[in-house]
Batch of 4 targets.
Target 1
Amino acid sequence: MSNIKYIGLDVHKNSIAIAIADNQRNGEVRYYGQIENNMDKLNNVFRKLVSDGSELSCVYEAGPCGYYLYRYLTDNGIDCFVIAPSQMPRKSGDRVKTDRRDAVTLARLHRAGELTPVYVPDLEDEALRDLVRAREDAQKALRKSKQQLGAFLLRHHIIYGGKTMWSSAHFNWLSNISMAHPAQQVTLQEYIDTVDGNIKRVDRLTTQIRELSEQSRLSPLIKALQAMRGVSLIVAATIAAELGDLRRFANPAQMMSYLGLVPSEHSSGEKTRRGGITKTGNGHVRKALIEAAQAYRLPARKSRAIRKRQESLDKEVCRIAWKAQLRLCGRYWRLAAKGKKVNVVKTAIAREIAGFAWAIAQEVTL
């Protein structure tokens, strides 16, 4: 057996704590020390560790520092894994958390094979993911700015009498409002400009997502997913950018579980108790799917937009999308008729959308 050293790395903005576990099952886990988060410093450490002919296998927790370290190590031929912090086993009574303890625990569990690596996107996929997340942030800012403007007007009992908010007519109405004090007029204009700026920001990011999606290796998957009702460009791009190739999941149930869309359970003895969804895994995709589920409250039909999106797609993909629509539209109303809450119904539909998305991905070649 080759001499493998299992390296636990607790990575922070300015530092990396290092622990080493030899390949002996019950061997001691050594704390090497803490170094600057600098690749030259890390190279110096690794050169010492491999001087006796050992191979290195590293692991660290995913966090705000991203995947730069992972890519650097793998590009230099060093085995590396990234794990989700939520998957780190912790004792219920353990209230002491330090960089040293984290590094030692990572090295020990990595040697024992008890850690499950997360999916690491390549640079192109991560670029699309960053765009999608930037648009999501812009949408949050837009929603907040609209609430602030509406609250300001309401405080002064200025109420819009038209039918559609944030339309051209609404903005024309806003521009004609005259406040009692010059300072209030400035405040109103700043709120209006903020909303307008956020709308344009969302539009710019949407355009960039559309252009990058067409150039991406995930383009066939993004186009195929849009065959489904409720799955627009943004939802499809979110699914593809966050999850990558959906074929990496062995079955649809595994994908549903990964997205945290399966019920939680606490059963003991003869008692079986199931609660709300687990909400583990990728929350961006889970949110997008739940929003997409809203489209299935209406009767099944192929709208003009859906027919246009399906024009260049494989017949099997279109068949799966229509099968999904027939099932989910009926299921939405059956669950609603049973008295289920709207959010519960949409979550159940979102779970099945994930399953049909997985089925469509099996028909796509990337």
Note: The first helix runs from residue 39 to 49.
Target 2
Amino acid sequence: MVWLGILFVAIFCYVPMFGIILAFKDESARQIDVMKIIFEADFVGFENFELFLADSESKNVIWNTLGLNSLMMLINFPSPILFAILISELKKPTFKRTVQTISYLPHFLSWVVFGGMVLTLINTDTGALNDFLLRLGLIKKPLEIAGDPDAFWGLIIITSLIKGVGWGSIIYLAAISGVSRDLYEAAEIDGANRFQRILHVTLPGIAPSIVTFLLLSTSGILNSSVEHILVFQNPDNISKSQVIDTMVLQYGIQKGNYQYATAIGVFKSVISCFLLIGSNFISKKLTGKGLY
């Protein structure tokens, strides 16, 4: 059974690494056959990387990627932890299972379906959200949420929270269940209230899980959920919605510029690697815990 996983990783993760050579090939060679580009196009060194860093569009794309993902990390990373702690504090099993089930459900919807529901809800003319806010008198005219560049980051963060906070809390619930009940009983005997038990027993007990996911989140700060972005991306908000991953998709698939797209992807991967090594080093120095 392990061989199936090894085969999957080998085919989809290691074999495609041969294509990295495209990043160092002449960007002007636009043959449809990728293998011809790999073996026949001129080698130009780091020219494609220089083009990307010198491009005025790339500066905005890098800023969008870092800004959006940093906000998502600041808000979305602690949310599953807090949600898992709240669920673990529920005393009634039936209510606890109900809350868990409801929070998990959005995860099983694709972004196309879930995003379509959200777009229908926030539609300027027929959306229920605008109608509700107008009836309450909180707004005087319908909000242009989907087409407003300034609202795009907030839309992405809120939808990712709704869709992922329940599913993301599963690993932390498992970690909380592994904390010895004797520690809670000892803290209660010592006079610790519920908040103090969470602070001094629960959080230290799940600290290894928190550190692991924090390091992975830090190294992946340049990664974006392409399907999530594309569902809400449109010409009106492109100035805020264009990120590195959507730029790779645009140049690689839509424009057929495989060399330039590969260079962007390699640039992102190298930065992510350095972020992982650096954050792991800092974590081990400060907390004594790390991925390796």
Note: The chain has one domain: 58-286.
Target 3
Amino acid sequence: MENDTFLTIASASEGLYRDKGSKFMAFAYPVSNEEEIREKQESLRKKYFDARHHCFAWRLGVTGDRFRTGDDGEPSNTAGKPILGQIISFGLTDILVVVVRYFGGILLGTGGLIQAYKQASLEALTRAEIVSSVFAETCLIRFDYRNMNQVLKVVKDMKLECTDRCFENRCSLKVKVRRSLSAVLLHRLERIASVEMMA
């Protein structure tokens, strides 16, 4: 069976690291898409508008193969990469970590920066509650009104979460199905006349 479980954090957490007057404030958030990531980053930029740097790393998807890092003016690979390294070492995905730096006036050097961003991220992730989550896809099911009972029975039998519904001559349902069960759902729906399923 296809693996559709992954580790993430249950809720936001924070960490703090200081070195030679510089303050590194780390913020970790559970996220599910890039829009949510942008919102969190914008919120932090507004709140800590006077900080010198807002460095980050995020990772999305059940396999964690979608990721991005940002050094925000720090020397290349001294901030975003160490943050991502901590996310990977914890085995996490669907997560954003931002480290906000207030410069203390003394340069830390490449090694010092890498250590500081790594340590700040570690502080936030150590404080977080790590949870196992299930990757679910949203599917749109379209069907004729006369087949509604059959479709609803499949949805109920498979214990699917329904996020949107429309019952007219041509009906539609939006359901969340765990990735490993989407083929089963498609197979069961194909037995019902004039039913379409779109991921």
Note: The chain has two domains: 5-133, 135-198.
Target 4
Amino acid sequence: MFERALDLAHHLISRRVHPGALVADATAGNGHDTLMLARLVGPGGRVYAFDIQEKALCRTRELLAREGMAERVTLVLDGHENMGRHIDGKLAAVMFNLGYLPGSPDRQIMTTAETTRPGIGEALNLLEPGGLVTIVVYSGHRGAEEEREAVVDYCLRLDQQQYTVMHTNFINQAHHPPELLAIRFRPGPGQ
């Protein structure tokens, strides 16, 4: 079923994203979420993939090219807190996979509360009614617990009339298992 928080995030996203949709991967990393989103949106959709590391975007570009999905994706060398500067339109979904670039020997470059909180705010401002944001939070590395606390606190303060927030974790796993937060923008009357 769901062995990892990321598996559940992928499941939720796959139920929300349809062919032709506009979506974003807020943390491109090695490109696996970007690739999944590109497959979901189909040839008529668009994925915006953000990362602050050129190395991450290169890895993502290579993966997309191998899979024949590059034409569906716009790669953006910028932080997720600046999404609104690059996207014109409403998003069906946004994925965050926090932490550092998997497989990179340099673990000094990572997401932080200072950019993730405004990044989530940007994502919510860009969501279409019924849109979904998933946030996979890793808390086993330096600075991660502060980021986790900031993300959870931010989500706790969201207006329940506008957003539904789910927080899931694997309570019987050792070594700081990842957690998932999923935020759905609730359509208002007439939307």
Note: The longest strand covers residues 127-137.
